[in-house]
Amino acid sequence: MDSQNYYGIPINPALVSDRWKWQVTLPIGTIITSSQVFATAELAIEHGRQWISAEMTFSSLNSCLSELCGQGALQRQEYCNLMASFLQIAHHA
Description:
The protein has about 90 residues and is of the alpha+beta class. It is about 50% helix and about 25% strand. The protein starts with a strand and ends with a helix. About 10% of the residues are buried.
């Protein structure tokens, strides 16, 4: 299976023994490889897309909430609670 781009970020399947992992190449050149293994390259790519979506959502939410906190529209504890809720809901590590 070939590399796929998701939001302009390349995702590649990586064969490990008889299983597959996803590898994402960030714009800064860093390569991140999943710790999970998948039965097919297609599944690995799909989970790589989900990881990118979660990272982008986390970054956007963090940015917005930080701005609101800086403007005094949100208290620090509210910010922490909202971010913790996102991490729990998204099963984000």
